[in-house]
Amino acid sequence: MIKETVKEAETRMKGALQNLEDSLATIRTGRASPALVEKLPIDYYGAPTPLMQLASISVPEPRTLMIRPFDASSLKTIERAIIASDLGLTPNNDGRVIRLNLPPLTEERRRDLVKIVHSRLEECRVSIRNVRRDLLKDLREFEHEKMISEDDLKRGEEELQKLTDKMIAQTEEIGERKEKEILEV
């Protein structure tokens, strides 16, 4: 009973970490990365479609992204979506491919990005703690319904706390890595 609960907690907490990594990948650093735009929703024939399904994205130079649509007719739509996004990038369209030049980040912009990273880290920590809270409640219910003993409850609470601490530590590592990337000149 306790093992299943801890397993469920681990699965849900890893989901929160994965979500964090995905959201941090969209924050730009000093160098170009396809992750910056690959999940950008493009209105393709009325359906929002991630850019990575409509085009190949490459990095020909450290500060340049090249987007080559599979369907040439979607070029304008992709260009409009990039302009409308919060990336703050101006696409250069030559009729076949779109080039995105990433200007060097200013010190002020780096600080703003670090603040965004910190807020996303806090969201992740909160969701990890929410998983812990939900499953602690489940364990206490099991004990209340005499499905597990009081000792089992204590053991389960300790295991859940150890898991929570481990996941929060991983969150911090991910955050420090991203912060270092952003502040790297």
From TrEMBL:
Q: Which GO terms describe its molecular function?
A: ribosomal large subunit binding
Q: Does the keyword Coiled coil apply?
A: yes
Question: Its Gene Ontology biological processes?
Answer: translational termination
Organism superkingdom: Bacteria
Cellular component, GO, one term:
cytoplasm
Q: Which UniProt keywords apply?
A: Coiled coil, Cytoplasm, Protein biosynthesis
Q: What is its main location?
A: cytoplasm
Where in or outside the cell?
Cytoplasm
Q: Which residues cross the membrane?
A: none
The record places domain Ribosome recycling factor at: 20-183
Q: Which residues form a coiled coil?
A: 139-173
Could you tell me which CDD domains the record lists for this protein?
Answer: RRF
For this protein, the record's InterPro entries field holds: Ribosome_recyc_fac, Ribosome_recyc_fac_dom, RRF_sf
What function does the entry list? Answer: Responsible for the release of ribosomes from messenger RNA at the termination of protein biosynthesis. May increase the efficiency of translation by recycling ribosomes from one round of translation to another.
Query: Per the similarity annotation, which family is this?
Result: Belongs to the RRF family.
- By what name is this protein known? Ribosome-recycling factor
Q: Which species is this record about?
A: Longilinea arvoryzae
